[in-house]
Amino acid sequence: MFGTITYEEIYKKENDFIFIDVRSPKEAKEEPLFGAINIPVLLDDERDIVGTLYVRESVEEAKKSAVKFISKRLPEIFEQIQDLYKNNKNKKIVMFCARGGMRSGSLFSLLNSLGFKVLKLEGGYKAYRAFISKKIEEFSQEINFIVLYGNTGVGKTELLYKLKEDGFNTLDLEGCANHRGSILGGVGLGSCHTQKKFDSLVYEALRKRNNNIVFVEGESRRIGRILIPEVLFNKIYKGEKVRINSDYEVRAKRLVNEYTAFENVNIQLEEALSVLKKHISEENINYYKKLVNDGNYEEVALELMKKYYDPMYGVSAKKHNFREQLIINDMETGMEELKRIYNEVSREVVK
User: Fold this and answer.
1) Do strands 240-245 and 226-227 pair parallel, antiparallel, or not at all (unpaired)?
2) 3-state helix, strand, coil in the chain (%, to 5)
C-alpha cells in the first residue's frame, strides 16, 4: 500500500527514521518500540471508554466517541508532529498503532492530505513484535553464551554490569524482566515488566552486540511472570557455564546492600517472607520478620542462604557441567577471571 513500510525494510536503518507511537501512554510503556515518541490519539481513560462502547454498544458509537476525543486534541498533535517534521528533515517519520489500523490510519491520512510525507508501519506494533521475536531466535543461534551460575549473593549481576562497562556484550535477563527471579526477587524493584517489554529489551541488547560472544546469567526459564523465549533459553543452557562461589559474609553484605537501598524496605521484606511459608516453618518466618524489624538484615540474609537458597540451588546445580568453578570474593578478581575465560572462548570460536 502507498505510504506504508514494513519493519523488515527499516531493520538496520533505524537511525534514518523517527517513530511516532500513537497508542495510549499505557500501551507505549508496557509494549514499547524503544526510541519511539509517544503522541497518543487516545489517552488511557479515553481508550478504555471507546473499548467499552465497542464491546457493549456498537462500532459506530465507539467511533463517534473516538472522534470526539481525538478532535479536541488535534491542534496539539498537529503541532508536535509539525515540529518533528521541521527539525528532522533528513529523517522519515513512521507512525504506528497496535495493528496499523484506525488510530494510525486516520492520522496518517490527515497528515498526508495536509502535505506531510509520513509513513505508516504496516501491521503496527503487532508486526514489529513478530519481527523481533523472529530476530531473537536468529540471534540466539548465532551467539556463543558464557553463562554465569552461582548461589544468591555471589555478584553475578554486578559482574555483568562491570563487563558491560568494559565493552563486553552482556544480556541482563533479570534487568530486562525487572525481577531477580527468586521469591524475594521483586523486593525494591516495583512491578515486573510485561512479556512484551522484556522481549523488546532482549532484542535491543542482542541487536547492539559487537560480536557473537555474550555474557549472561544462568536463570530458570521463568523470571517472575516472564518466560524466556524457548530458543534463547535452550541456547543459553548449552553455553559455556561458569560457576561462581563466594564466602557467606561477602554474599550477605552484598544482599543487604542490594535489597535494603530503598524506602519501605521492612514492609516489602515482610510481605516477601510471608510467601516463604511454603518452604520454611512459620516459626522461622516470624523470627526473620523480627530480625528485619530490628534492622538485623545480615543475619536474615545468612539464615536464608543457609536454610533456603543454598540447598535449593545445590539441587539445580547438579544438572550442569561447569567449564570452571571460581572462588570470587572481590570484583577485581572476578573480572580478571572472566576476561581470561572470554579470551579462551574467543580462540575456541575462531578455530
Assistant:
1) unpaired
2) 55, 15, 30
Q: Are 66 and 104 in contact (CB under 8 A)?
A: no
Say what the pLDDT of residue 351 is: 62
Instruction: Please report the domains of the chain, with CATH numbers, ordered by start residue.
Output: 4-130 (3.40.250.10), 143-350 (3.40.50)
Rg (CA), the chain: 24
Task: Report the pLDDT value the prediction gives residue 182, as an integer from 0 to 100.
Answer: 67
In this structure, are residues 177 and 192 in contact, taking their beta carbons and an 8 Å threshold? yes
List, as one string, the DSSP characters of 277-320. GGTS-HHHHHHHHHHHHTT-HHHHHHHHIIIIIHHHHHHHHTT-
Question: Which residue type does 309 have?
Answer: Y
Q: Residue 76 and residue 93: Cα distance in Å, rounded?
A: 17
Encode pLDDT of 317-327 as tens digits. 677 889 999 99
Which helix (H) or strand (E) segment holds residue 105: the answer is helix 102-113
pLDDT for 303: 85
User: Cell 526459564 identifies what position?
Assistant: 221
pLDDT tens figures, 32-54: 999 999 999 999 999 999 889 98
104: cell is 494510525
CB 243 within 8 A of CB 149: yes
How far, in Å, CA of 163 to CA of 127, rounded?
33
Taking the model in full, what pTM does it have?
A: 0.88
Question: Can you list the residues of the chain whose pLDDT is less than 50?
Answer: 1
Question: Can you give the pLDDT at residue 191?
Answer: 80
Give dist(CA 189, CA 226) in Å, integer: 15
